[in-house]
Automatic annotation (TrEMBL), chain A:
Keyword Nucleotide-binding included in the entry's annotation: no
Protein name: Urea ABC transporter substrate-binding protein
PANTHER family, per database record: ALIPHATIC AMIDASE EXPRESSION-REGULATING PROTEIN (PTHR47628:SF1), PTHR47628
Signal sequence bounds: 1-28
Record keywords: Signal
Pfam family, one: Peripla_BP_5
From TrEMBL, chain B:
A GO cellular component annotation in the UniProt record: plasma membrane
Domain of life according to the entry: Bacteria
GO molecular function: transmembrane transporter activity
Signal peptide: 1-32
Protein name per the record: Urea ABC transporter permease subunit UrtB
InterPro entries xref list: ABC_transp_permease, ABC_UrtB_bac, BCAA_transport_permease, Lipovitellin_superhlx_dom
Gene name in the database record: urtB
Entry-linked NCBIfam families: urea_trans_UrtB
């Protein structure tokens, strides 16, 4: 999903820090190597470091329970340093040099797009754990995050409903790059199919790292005052969310008047925000840390213990979030497929993984779709609480199937069977 | 997809029920205690039962009911062993206010969603409309003005009878007028339409517009007098809204300008006056912001009752922290590189990376959370839809204050005179006995300290994280170069000009295009006038 700015810094960091592979553990012959490809420096480090942590924790857990096919897993962690071309290089190194059986990694759509050709060429296996814009289906990639119909569309449907406030006018607000643009294209088509007039949709974009939201908030207020109940759909990414929500609070736009639903704001992002003025604003995900069930309690406890044991900074306040859960589920899906195929061979694993199920921390049993490489996921909508966590106010009864090719984009009509 | 929670189906019940309890509440405020059965229902019932319970509690009225409803709205109402309790500030009390011996964690807090919250807010406002405190009545009136509905009309009319304060009366009148727009009596409608002409809320305009609409050639509003009044009211509102919005835009431009100025002022000294291309300037802002964070932490730990004033204490702390970093930078690296701009550029860039990584190691890669103090939260409502946030007003004032200090320092102190002398002619200044090396260190420290002050201000509106500085370095250089190197006045004009121009462009073309246009404008301007808005007169000995 997210690309962020500061290419300059990413560049210098990648130049100044020799980002070399750090093999973990002993180099025994009877291990299976798996790659972890997340930025540990540069702008994306904020979000991706937690995913690396969860991956290592999960691998430790699998090893403690006897490993896979009787062999221990050996993680190979590399740092692509938020530098998109470096992602491709590191992926190549992982597959051809370290001979990993599978790679868990990437966050931004642009990094995924940069490694896709490498996985195709070398017939590797990538598990991508973040919600994204769809419009893609690679043989070598499994998507454990949400497709637009598993996040964006249910969120908008909720806001349209009586309980969600019955919104009639829509502000589609995003950062200016591929994920928000594609998502908003889908949402615009969806809203039109629900009878929303062109004049009742306002679309606006800001550059990466935009920090002055005065004008946009004023515009939203003006738009909202023109008669009908208004809701804001925000695909604003990363750092810009803090000034956006601060301005929102200070300008007196409350969630009861104009609710904002965000697709890129989770527990981790809210750690840097004073959330009291944001109470009641919404986020749509497939998992929240506040979900109450045995799997989730165990998942959170495991992660907290792992963080403490491994000296993660601020280990006492670590949170879990949706992409972390997706990473955890992805690794187990791969493990089960390998056990079914009795081999780590890419093609055999791909053949075996369809139909695998796993009881996820979200409280649902998730299924890997037989054909489309996406998980069937539940959709949860949460309202921000004063402590930066979310109260789930709505959720689907059962997991729903992903539509990577949105029916709301022209030219996708023939692809709905996928 | 089906909704899973039972309250989904029952949520629509809440509005009429709350309205009903409001009327009852207003009628009988005599009893103080809340009905125990209703509380029980609130604790154990499903959502429908809870709404009924809220109704019953409200019908009882009184201080305790008010407390229960306020606590529910704030998410402080919970259930402990089947009884309703209030958890506030880590203390558990029953609804009467008596302390209950229990850990706050043991309490199962009751959830509310936006629908309930909205209903609760309206309920609270209706209760508050009869409060003794005028500011509470005012806030209540404003809430009701925005959420006026037919069921509230009796409450509003009662308030109109008893209200003595003219400002509040006016707002209540607007609220009542909004409801009366749909009255059957044309005289009532006329009165309402005319009254609403006093509004400055674009939402009211939207309410009036149907009066001017036609269905198949027949007016929706049959009465011509009412139509005329509606047209006049719409025009009046439009006029007021346009004025308010322009003021709002100018203000946001000035506010952006003040932020640019605070970010750039330190650089105007280190680069503008001393000629050091300081790529670590952004990180000096970061040091100031982290100093603010540390001060906030200290206040929370040791002086919780003064926590709202941590920002004030952060001002000297931010200055000193950044100035100290500046002294170290100057003494250890920059002094060896004067007159070698390329090397100092690379060296300061390296320093900036060191500082970023240091912040990451010390504070973690996450952005840290800084809360706006209460007195800097919210804003002044200029007109409906145009709010001037307090934090921006304060920062605007702070920028003026810092600018004044810098001006005083540069023009009224001995050090300022030395700095100016050294920059104008280093050799000559040295000859007449100015200790140029020490002046360099002090001037750089002051420039760095002022960057730290900028960081304190930025921490109140923006992200505080290891990489925050990189976002401001470009803007800072932009301001200094545009304003004219070596000139403080130039930086002021450039910052304010850029702020206002980009805000007007943004309103017209959107944020992305506005940013491009501003940069294109600067390129064109620098082509035409490379010395900036103000050229420094005299000569640089170093050149």
């Amino acid at each position: 999903m997210q690309t962020r700015r500061n290419f300059l810094k990413a560049l210098t960091l990648s130049a100044s820090i020799a980002a070399i592979g750090v093999p973990f553990g002993a180099q025994a012959a009877d291990t299976i190597k798996v790659g972890v490809l997340h930025s540990l420096s540069g702008t994306m480090a904020i979000s991706e470091t937690a995913l690396k942590n969860v991956a290592l924790m999960t691998i430790e857990e699998i090893n403690a329970n006897g490993g896979v096919l009787g062999k221990k897993l050996e993680p190979v962690v590399v740092d692509p340093a938020s530098n998109w071309p470096l992602f491709a290089e590191k992926a190549r190194q992982l597959i051809s040099q370290d001979k990993v059986a599978a790679v868990f990694g990437c966050w931004t759509s642009v990094s995924r797009k940069s490694v896709n050709p490498v996985f195709k060429e070398l017939n590797g296996l990538l598990f991508y754990p973040v919600q994204y814009e769809g419009e893609e289906l690679e043989k070598n990639v499994f998507y454990t995050g949400a497709a637009p119909n598993q996040q964006a569309i249910p969120a908008v449907e909720y806001l349209m409903s009586e309980e969600g406030g019955g919104a009639k006018r829509w502000v589609l607000l995003g950062t200016d790059y591929v994920y928000p643009r594609t998502t908003n294209k889908i949402l615009r088509a969806f809203l039109k199919s629900k009878g929303v007039a062109e004049a009742d949709i306002m679309e606006d974009y800001t550059p990466f790292g935009h920090s002055d939201y005065q004008t946009i908030i004023a515009n939203i207020k003006k738009f909202a005052s023109e008669g009908k109940k208004t809701a804001v759909v925000s695909t604003i990414n990363g750092d810009s969310n803090v000034p956006f929500y601060k301005e929102l609070g200070n300008a007196g736009l409350k969630a009861t008047d104009v609710p904002v639903v965000a697709f890129s704001v989770g527990e981790e992002e809210l750690r840097g925000v004073d959330t009291k003025p944001l109470v009641g604003h919404l986020a749509a995900w497939n998992y929240f840390m506040t979900v109450k069930n045995g799997e989730n309690d165990a998942f959170i406890k495991k992660y907290k213990d792992w963080a403490k044991k491994n000296g993660v900074p601020n280990a006492d306040t670590v949170v879990t979030n949706d992409p972390m859960e997706a990473t955890y589920v992805g690794i187990y899906m791969w493990k089960q497929a390998v056990e079914k195929a009795k081999s780590t061979d890419t093609d055999k694993v791909i053949a075996a993984i369809g139909g695998q199920t796993f009881k996820a921390p979200s409280g649902f049993t998730l299924t890997m779709d037989k054909t489309n490489h996406h998980l069937h996921k539940p959709v949860l909508i949460g309202e921000v609480r004063a402590d930066g966590q979310f109260d789930v106010v709505w959720q689907t009864k059962s997991p729903i199937r992903a539509q990577p090719w949105s029916p709301f984009i022209d030219g996708n009509e023939g692809k709905q069977g996928l | 997809m089906k909704r899973t929670s039972p309250w989904a189906q029952r949520a629509w019940l809440i509005l009429p029920l709350l309205a009903a309890f409001l009327l009852l509440a207003a009628a009988g405020q005599a009893r103080a205690a809340v009905d125990e059965g209703a509380l029980q229902q609130l604790a154990t019932g499903d959502f429908g039962a809870r709404i009924a319970a809220i109704e019953a509690i409200g019908a009882g009225g009184g201080e305790e009911a008010r407390r229960v409803i306020a606590a529910l709205g704030a998410g402080e109402l919970g259930v402990l062993d089947g009884r309703v309790v209030i958890v506030r500030d880590g203390r558990v009390t029953d609804v009467g206010g008596a302390v209950v011996e229990a850990a706050p964690d043991a309490v199962d807090l009751l959830r509310v969603n936006n629908r309930v919250r909205r209903a609760l807010a309206t309920a609270n406002a209706a209760l508050d409309l009869s409060a003794d405190d005028a500011t509470r009545r005012l806030a209540a009136a404003q809430t009701l003005r925005d959420n006026a509905s037919e069921t509230l009309l009796p409450v509003l009319e009662r308030a109109l009878e008893s209200e003595q304060d003219d400002a509040i009366r006016e707002i209540v009148l607007l609220a009542a007028a909004k409801v009366n727009l749909n009255a059957d009596d044309p005289a009532k409608r006329l009165k309402a339409v005319t009254a609403l002409g006093e509004s400055s809320d674009p939402a009211v305009k939207a309410l009036l517009e149907p009066f001017m609409a036609q269905d198949n050639g027949t007016w929706r509003e049959p009465d011509a007098l009412v139509r005329e009044a509606a047209a006049a009211s719409i025009a009046a509102i439009e006029r007021r809204v346009a004025v308010a919005q322009n003021i709002g835009t100018v203000f946001s431009g000035l506010s952006l300008g003040s932020i640019l100025l605070l970010a750039a002022l330190g650089l105007a000294i280190t680069y503008g006056v001393m000629g050091v291309i300081n790529m670590a300037h952004g990180e000096l802002l970061m040091v100031g912001a982290y100093a603010t964070f540390v001060v906030q932490g200290l206040f929370r730990a040791h002086l919780p009752e003064w926590v709202d004033w941590y920002v004030v204490a952060a001002i000297p702390a931010g200055f000193l922290a950044a100035a100290a970093v500046g002294v170290v930078m100057e003494r250890s690296v920059l002094r060896f590189l004067y007159g070698r701009p390329l090397e100092s550029l690379l060296a300061t860039w390296g320093i900036s990376l060191v500082l970023i990584q240091a912040a990451r190691v010390v504070f973690g890669p996450q952005n840290v959370e800084l809360a706006n103090p209460v007195w800097m939260s919210g804003g002044v409502e200029l007109a409906a839809g145009v709010v001037l946030p307090w934090n921006r007003i304060v920062i605007l004032g702070f920028a003026a204050f810092v600018l004044f200090l810098v001006w005083l320092m540069m023009n009224r102190t001995r050090l300022g005179m030395f700095v100016r002398a050294v920059t104008q002619n280093r050799a000559m200044a040295g000859c007449v006995g100015v200790p140029t090396a020490r002046v360099d260190t002090l001037a750089f420290a002051i420039g760095a300290g002022i960057a730290g002050l900028g960081g304190v201000a930025l921490s109140q509106i923006s992200n505080v994280g290891p990489a925050m500085g990189t976002g401001y370095i470009v803007d800072s250089f932009m301001v200094v170069v545009l304003g004219g190197v070596g000139q403080l006045a130039g930086a002021v004009w450039a910052a304010m000009g850029l702020g206002i121009v980009s805000k007007f462009l943004e309103g017209w073309a959107g944020a992305v295009i506005a940013k491009i246009l501003v940069l294109v404008f600067i390129i064109a301007f620098i082509q035409k006038r490379p010395q900036g808005i103000f050229a420094l007169k005299g000569r640089f000995a170093d050149n």
